[in-house]
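Possible race condition, two jobs.
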Amino acid sequence: MKNCLKNLFIFFYLLVFSNISYGQNTLFKDFSEKIKQNIKENSMSYIKNQQCFTSYWNIIIKNFHVNHIKLFAVCVEVDPSKKINWDNPDIPENSKVKTVYIFGKDMTEKIRDELSKKKTGFFFKNLAFYKPSHPEYKEDEYYYFE
């Protein structure tokens, strides 16, 4: 009986350890490459130069690692060559709240640190979205990439 419990404990330990060790830890650069490939394959498109003001966010953890961050934000297009007005932005009344997904181990850590410092405004150079004809399409869902 002791031997059986010992083997069960070892099996459980190895199972948990393998999930922690081999959890999905994609880098932001790798995720961006996947998005660019989808754009080339014409399943995605993107918008540029978005100034986003976050109202709410979720940090999604899988296998004991931050998997991605989901921001709920109002975004407006800005001209990056002009000074961006962070204090009194010109947000149209008909603006919708967008869901912005941020993947990549390095980028999620950076954004999480900024959110913990109470930063709610972000500038996103590129936000990708699935085209309406694609099965993964959801209205107002975007993916940050560079």
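Job #2 (started ~2 s after job #1):
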Amino acid sequence: MSTSESELRKSMQQYGKQAFSETEQIKILNLLLEDAKKQLSREHEIYQLIENYQLKLSNEINLNQAIQFVNKFIIELESKDKDSSTVNYLKQHGFYRILYRHPKLLGQELPQDDILHKLLRSGFIGVGISAVMILLFISTAFFTAPLWLTAITTGLFVGASTYLSGILYGVVNDIFATHANLPYFLLGHQSQQTSLLRTNDKVAQGIAWGVAATFGPVIIATLIFTVAATITAFFVPIATFLLPVMMIAMPLIAVGAEFYARKKAREYLDTEGNFYWIGSNDYQRRGLNYMCPTNEERAAWYANSDRNLFGFTKVPLIGLGALIGLVVLSGISMFLPPVLFISPVIAIAIPAAFSAVTCATLIAGGIYMQVNRNKQLDDRYRLEFERDEIVPDLYLDEDMEYIRKIAKIYAQNEPTVEPKQEVINTENYSFLFDKKPKQAMPNIKQEEFEPARLSQAGA
């Protein structure tokens, strides 16, 4: 048997690299925290936070457990570091890359024939069709066309505007939601769901889920608006001036849902001692245990369900009100100022412009999502989709010079840690300077190696 391509690639990646033990890698984490701590005054809240976690690390010998500690530290730091100065310092000096470049969880992607992928594709096809309907409406509105054609194109335009408004609501709502708690979408939240996209980009995930989750209800609303508007347009002018109001109102519902979700998250924190049940399948539970270990994160996860419930109960009411308003105002058009119905600017240009801008925004969002659908950022939400197993070690390839530099600095200075904490000195970090690169041999199986060695000996 020959050595597989994956085994050869792994051997090539390891060749010439320094191999550190778990204890040595924990020391490196401690050293990086020491460097961040030295940028602060001893009285600073973040200084004390770092020192507390250093104390935990000083007694830890298991790398996986140490990474769990540091991951919790990052979560707490991000919530307490109001000006993000320490967070930015750690990011700029490679701490996030070192800690998160090797994902700690295997990702599971939904198959391409899953209903969510079909809804996502259909959603953007609908955006493209809406763009055509806008152009068709403009062409028949500004140029002479038969009444029947004008009525049909006006009805289709109303339907397109309704569709774009609904999809825009979904995207805005879910971008808010992914920033509140990304794993709710990254891992899925129903029992049959895993990852829709591979990316941990919050905006890309929000766009994808916003389109996929709202397509079904929105297409129903679109059909109702289209039929009602088309029938009405055969008898009276359509109150198209109402459409921009609807397109503004829909994203505002998402803003209202954001405030509602924050309120629910606070209520969960006030009433729940612990969040034992979270996630709907094993994939989600394992991911949430690592990505959302704090009650604050888990409360946000629960609140995203309330956010969705808020939207699915309030949006239909707004839509129903818009439909009634559209039909009623069109029906009493003879009692309203004629300028609302005959002005090219008010009745045609402004509604078409709002719809066109919304359509262009969604198309740009779709392009962004497609470009970034496999992008992996260096944070705790990174999942391993390329390999069949996770790499347990820290990622040190790009930052060894920086690590050696700060090791020299803190080896020469007086330690400022508490007595129980491990002292930063030359002896503790000599492995950074003395260790030779590991000369990794290809991972050849025993039965392959023996004949080769015998043949060389015979030669």
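Residues 11-16, 414-423, 439-459 have pLDDT under 50 and may be disordered.
Logs attached separately.
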